[in-house]
Write a structure and sequence with these properties.
Length: about 200
């Protein structure tokens, strides 16, 4: 089982990234919460990982903090929730924010995260409320900030948001939050915050 990777960041294109560890390239899927703080391509990165065996193969997921990995694993214990929704949760809300929404029983805000309907949100509240306070523990970042600015941040943000499950029309509305000079990560962060706030 692979629990941690330390190597050179080869590429990052939400939700995918690759880390070169001693000449071996590991492809990982990661939530936007991790992408926000990734270093520039070519720099060293350390990621906590989750290795999953699926019916059609294996998958590796990467996280900058232990709290993100813990939440990713806990959310999947909820009936009907898989890795795709767990990534969407971490892309749509911080660990602390998700814990607060679950503890307060804010089903409406949880439903704004792609892939989460009312029944799933209600199950999350019921099944995770008692453990929500523990989610934020271990939030230390394993790698420092320093994300690079891509050539076309708005286009990169648009692709990433659509891969997270938002429809093109929704993405266009969300991209209105962008300001000149924003990186793709900044645009995505603003867009997701605006959706969560309603």
């Amino acid at each position: 089982m692979i629990g941690r990777l330390k190597g050179i960041l080869v590429y990052k294109s939400p939700p995918q990234l690759m880390v070169d560890v001693g000449g071996v390239g590991y492809e990982l899927s990661a939530p936007m919460s991790t992408f926000y703080d990734l270093p520039e391509v070519g720099r060293e990165v350390v990621l906590s990982t989750h290795y999953a065996v699926k019916e059609d193969g294996v998958a590796l997921y990467g996280f900058l903090t232990e709290a993100e990995r813990r939440l990713f694993r806990e959310v999947q214990k909820v009936t009907g929730v898989g890795a795709k929704i767990a990534l969407a949760v971490l892309s749509g809300a911080s660990v602390d924010e998700f814990a607060r929404l679950v503890q307060s029983g804010d089903v409406t805000a949880l439903c704004r995260i792609p892939g989460i309907g009312k029944k799933t949100a209600e199950r999350m509240v019921v099944e995770l409320r008692d453990r929500a306070a523990d989610f934020a523990g271990g939030a230390a970042v394993l790698a420092g900030p320093g994300a690079g600015v891509p050539a076309d941040p708005a286009a990169e943000a648009s692709v990433a948001l659509q891969q997270l499950g938002y429809k093109p029309a929704e993405v266009q509305k969300m991209l209105r939050q962008a300001a000149p000079g924003d990186s793709a990560e900044d645009i995505i962060r603003k867009a997701l915050r605006s959706v969560l706030k309603g």
